[in-house]
Amino acid sequence: MVQTTPETVSTAVARPRRRGETASLTRRIDAAQGAIAALRTPCSAIEGEEIDLSCTDYLRLRGHAAIADAAIGELKGDCGNIYMSAAFLTDSTMQRAVERKFAAFLSAEDAVLCQSGWCANVGLMQAVTDEKTHVYLDEHVHAGVWDGATSAGAIVHAVRHNDPSDLERLLKTHGPGVVVVSSVYPGDGSIAPLASLARLAKSEGCEMAVDETHSIGVFGRHGEGLVSALGLADRVNYRLFSLSKAMGTRAGMVAGPARIVDFFRYESRPAIFSSAVLQYEIAGLAAALDVVQEEDWRRDRLRGNTKALRAGLRVAGFGIDADGSQLMPVFNGSLAEAEALRAELAQRQLKTSVIAPSPNAPNSAYVRLAANSAISTDEIHRVVAICGDVLSKRSAAS
Which of 160, 213, 234, 338 has CB 3.0 to 4.6 Å from 241, enough for a Cys bridge? Predict the structure, then answer.
């Protein structure tokens, strides 16, 4: 038994419990303070024109007149906004019309609009899995997918990133289930070997879901995504994505078989217990889809800029592939190191993103560049020069 002494009493008094915090919460908040402060700290920059490669508005749709006009027109009119769950919507609503429009765009039977990509990810897992379902998740797939599968009580298996052989090993051991991967992974910009994964899933009797958040609008003839571009729409059961990237708006979506999508509307907890997406947002989204399909020059420019930026960075000494996605990591290490590099690049008028590491991989923070359709050839040369100079100085110092 521990004896209470005046010293222990005074220590307890000196460290009073914080209001609203359990002891374990206090420890977690204290441990996170450094990372939170670093992410909040603005980076001072030298004078000049900033180049923003932090934003995931890949097609640069922000401020597009047609999209803004559609949203504003709905706001000014008698838009009859729905402030209740989308489960109560009928087939005659604007939301259902836009969902059918997206389904046709994706060559899917049906689609359902969600409040966010997170809601789409969590909700799909809750709708299609339960405690008897084996779920095979690429270790880098979005956190919402992990949380959705866990909340559904599914039997979750982590698959090594982009490794079909590891997936095959797990499937042979545990049997059929639901395989979930991303077409393009946001942290390192890697592209999934979708054709191999889809063949494996089919041969082992699995359903397959692909997160196309960073692929929709970017890949495919008119931006249909990588699944469609590779001719895999009939092999992938579900596609889920955020519309906050190339579509430039705030919502999420799930596309797939009509029977399952309809079940999602009444089974997914985020769908049931969230209010519907507002109609002015839906009007803007419908206009954004038109722009994505019609203005192919934006996609062409993005592809050209991606290729030029990757080629330049390779010449400057960065070990990235010549071909790949619009997302390019230029550094991998601890969060503190990544934040220091972000600040250094910002001082040189290059705005980048830091992708924070997962709790299980503390040294996996990325400093990432996101190409877009608006950057010029001169700006690409500036980016390469800035990154190359920083790399050279860091190499000389190490």
Answer: 213
